[in-house]
Amino acid sequence: MARKKKVFIESKEERMMLTIQEVIQELLVAHDEHRDVDLNKLKTRISSKYALESSPRLVDIIAAVPLDAKNKLLPKLKAKPIRTASGVSFFFFFFFFF
Q1: How far does CA 2 lie from the centroid of its chain?
Q2: What is the rounded CA–CA span in Å between residue 7 and residue 91?
Q3: Torsions phi, psi for 57 (to 5 deg)
Q4: Could you give the C-alpha distances from 85 to 18, 35, 43, 89, 96, in angstroms and in order?
Q5: 74: Cβ–Cβ under 8 A, 6 or more apart, which residues?
Q6: 4 Cβ partners below 8 Å, 6+ apart?
Q7: pTM for this one?
Q8: Element (H, E) at 24
Q9: What's the rounded Cα separation, in Å, for the pair 80 and 6?
Q10: pLDDT tens-digit profile of 20-78?
Q11: Phi, psi at residue 11, to the nearest 5°?
């Protein structure tokens, strides 16, 4: 049996904004309830609900966080430093030698 494909009136950009808004709402509810949320699973679930091919980028979510909620959500949304294959990040290399 083939699944019926949902037809949306909204454009792809509008559906992306709806997805971002819903992700932020879910994060605020989770923060108020003091529970952890897997952000990647949340983005994937809501993106598939709106039939998007890709999930919203982290910078788009951060940019859409309301001012009154920034102090709650930004510490949880900020990207952590990533180790490179050599174990030395570019920032450290740049800072150390210049």
Answers
A1: 30
A2: 46
A3: -75, 155
A4: 37, 33, 27, 9, 18
A5: 62, 65
A6: none
A7: 0.73
A8: helix 12-32
A9: 36
A10: 999 999 999 999 999 988 999 999 999 999 999 999 999 999 999 999 999 999 888 87
A11: -75, 170
